[in-house]
Amino acid sequence: xxxxxxxxxxxxxxxxxxxxxxxxxxxxxxxxxxxxxxxxxxxxxxxxxxxxxxxxxxxxxxxxxxxxxxxxxxxxxxxxxxxxxxxxxxxxxxxxxxxxxxxxxxxxxxxxxxxxxxx
Length: 119
What we know:
The protein has 119 residues and is α/β, with parallel strands linked by helices. The chain has one domain. The chain has helices at 11-19, 37-46, 82-94, and strands at 2-5, 23-26, 50-53, 72-75, 105-108, 113-116. It has a six-stranded mixed beta sheet, sandwiched between helices.
């Protein structure tokens, strides 16, 4: 899966996802740190990458309707600590939860994942 990590996620999630076989880019590596949501979003879409973020702004299905983009994975761990984020990612990787969900909005926490599909 082609993924773009937002700046609110550190390097550990990038390493973990790469180790799981995903093609992962981070906004820091592309000079997009500090850029607004619109610029990060445009870059993710231009590259055909699902955006992985902690930013609730991307949960607005009126602005980002499922099916109109490569996908959004919104992390909602109980805390924003590195360990909490890695636990949620680990669960998703273990469940192979990212495959086949291009174009969807996924909201994931420690317990499960809610998926809004196109249409």
